[in-house]
Specification:
With 401 residues, the protein is of the alpha+beta class. It has helices at residues 18-26, 62-73, 89-99, 106-111, 115-124, 138-147, 171-181, 222-228, 242-257, 292-300, 304-314, 371-388; strands spanning 7-12, 30-36, 52-56, 80-83, 132-134, 152-156, 166-168, 188-192, 196-206, 209-218, 232-236, 263-272, 278-284, 329-336, 352-355, 361-368. Helix 1 (18-26) packs across helix 11.
Length: 401
């Protein structure tokens, strides 16, 4: 518990981060939440742990949010600002710099929100990533399409996860999309599509050193699911495997090159089918979505939301110690369901540790000390989910948590 009461302002463009809010309160902090008016009274908020809610029509207008929080700061001492949603990261960084508060500033935050900025920073440090080009100069884009064979992917620079990504199969299709986008096209990056297996590294960093990291692999690429629908699956990988060891080392190099000092991160890499090398895809200074934090907690006992709260409260000069934890394995199977409230009672193996209760969703988390046993179970569950629950509509973005 801090020696003096710390006031934490959480920016929340969506209802999430409940465990972080609760931990801040349990650590003795005063907790404010600034969120959208449309989320007022949402039952998902841990209202007992929030001292006061503040509301705005939107949190996307930086100047308006800076003015509102600065007005609040006239009468309330604000010590920490924490963005609970990825889309709040840049606003939080701007607020910290405006109010001169500790934590990530705008320059570093850019590497964790802007896909072009993170691509260029990784390239400068000789970290492999798919070939890319800014969507700015048409001659440069034409040269790229002539040198790099399709397909390509057109990515919004500041969207989260796989949202808004288009797979492009030929140049005419690309130019059509760019024409339709008009002035918005410069907010995208065009890159080579690299077929492969996609991994994610979820990590905790203190003073620039990664003190905890676990590697997981998606069953299918998220881009494929958002375009075609299907089962979302991710599972922790063997900690002493060559892939895990290589990715942990690469993740440390990446975060160091981006100047990341303290907090949690979710970073994705692809292992190319063509050459077996790892390529950096993207990173985010947040807890992974789609129940990834729950998967990690059931495998290790570490809740990334809780640890993030402790790190933020400790501040740049405070002490933080990673808790003792298990080294078991866990994974998740999740999909949009045909049924309003799917019945998962038939999924009763002892390894099933959590069943997701969410309208129009079927999902479960399984955990085991044996990664091979876990992999077999998850693959079996994925096949059964396809028959029992799966809704065909490709709406992956709606299962973000």
């Amino acid at each position: 518990m801090p020696n003096q009461q710390i006031t934490v302002l959480c920016l929340a463009g969506d209802v999430k981060g409940q465990r972080l809010i609760t931990e801040c309160k349990q650590e003795g902090c005063r907790v404010f939440v600034l969120t959208r008016e449309s989320l007022k009274g949402d039952p998902g908020w841990p209202t007992a742990d929030v001292d006061e809610f503040f509301y705005m029509h939107t949190l996307t207008k930086k100047d308006d949010v800076i003015n509102a929080v600065s007005y609040l700061a006239r009468t309330q001492q604000i010590d920490r600002i924490i963005p609970l949603d990825e889309f709040d990261l840049e606003i939080a960084a701007a607020l910290r710099e405006h109010l001169r508060l500790p934590g990530m500033g705008e320059t570093t935050a850019r590497y964790f929100r802007d896909k072009l900025a993170m691509r260029m920073a990784a390239h400068d440090k000789s970290i492999l990533s798919p070939a890319f080009v800014p969507v700015v100069n048409y001659e440069v884009i034409r040269h790229f399409t002539e040198q790099i064979p399709p397909p390509w992917v057109l990515k919004p620079r500041s969207q989260g996860g796989a949202a808004g990504i288009r797979k492009i199969h030929h140049a005419d299709e690309l130019w059509h999309h760019l024409e339709m986008m008009g002035d918005e096209q410069s907010h995208c990056v065009l890159e080579q599509f690299v077929p492969g297996d996609i991994f994610h590294v979820d990590a905790i960093t203190i003073d620039g050193k990664v003190i905890y990291a676990d590697v997981s692999r998606y069953g299918r690429p998220p881009l494929e699911i958002i375009q075609n629908g299907g089962i979302f699956l991710t599972c922790l990988q063997k900690r002493n495997s060559l892939d895990s060891l290589a990715l942990k080392e690469l993740n440390q190099k990446l975060l160091s090159s981006f100047g990341f000092r303290r907090g949690v991160t979710h970073t994705e890499f692809i292992k190319s089918h063509a050459d077996g090398k790892f390529y950096f895809l993207e990173t985010a200074a947040r807890v992974g979505g789609a129940y990834i934090a729950d998967v990690i907690e059931h495998a290790t006992g570490i809740n990334l939301w809780t640890e993030w709260a402790k790190i933020e409260i400790a501040g740049e000069k405070g002490n933080y110690k990673l808790p003792e934890h298990l080294e078991n394995y866990a994974g998740i199977v999740l999909c949009l369901a045909q049924q309003e409230w799917p019945d998962l009672s038939a999924y009763n193996d002892p390894e099933v540790v959590y069943k997701i209760h969410k309208k129009q969703h079927a999902g479960l988390i399984a955990a085991s000390p044996d990664p091979a046993r876990l992999q077999v179970l998850l693959e079996n569950y994925s096949w059964r989910f396809s028959n029992d629950f799966l809704a065909s509509a490709p709406q992956y973005d709606k299962i973000e948590r």
